[in-house]
Amino acid sequence: MKNWVKEKLARGEKVTGTFFMTGNVRMMEGLGCADLDYVIIDTEHGPFTTETVMGLAMAAESRHMAPFVRIADVTHRDIQQAVDAGAYGLIVPCLRTMEEMRRLVKLAKFPPEGCRGYAQGRHCGFGAQDWAKDLDEFIRVSNEELLVLPQCETLECLEQIEEVAALEGIDGIFVGPFDLSISLGIPGRFTDSRFEAAIDRILAACKAAGKPALIFTSDAAGAKKYLDRGFDGVATSTDIGIFMSGCQALARELRAAAQG
To answer: I need a labelling partner for 225 at 20 to 30 A (CA). Which of 22, 116, 189, 190 fits?
Structure first.
């Protein structure tokens, strides 16, 4: 298993991706043709079963797009099934306490960092890859290559973000700006000084810990703004959002053509 997103981040390169919510394998493969680095299969808000996630991960990988999974809860079931299905990264929402952060690491990583359950899933070719045939090497590679990215989207997480970012086993921070602004009491007001201060604090915490910071953006303009500001990666829009934008643009062109 080679996590090319992690490799790009280690080289100081920016990474780009989007969220996936529609559940169609052909849509995922088509999305992979767009040359994105990664895609986040959203099991928090999307209608996915574990079997669906596995098929979507396979489709993404077939086009060299790293499949990440946003899980809904920090549970053994959610984490184990995501990593066995082939997740290159875990995006984890709604975290509020250091206890939850430590539990996330414990369930996502093998000993000595955690207590992840052993299974030869998709990430090692079901045991066929050479590195998976030696158990020590299997554990080492699995721990190194999986990106564990808690979301900073609650006031409680923000208030201890320095400790979160520094925690061993946490590989970076993913910012959920909408939920974070709501938690701050300024929903959607991304130019508010309180939100701007929160972003600065998250970036500073990640830089101090030597770990990447990623963020959701609604559009390309927002992506450029945050990448220029110092974020290492963006996940821009969703597959359904991209589809609707394209359909709406086409409909406007067709109406204009019909009106002569």
So the answer is: 22
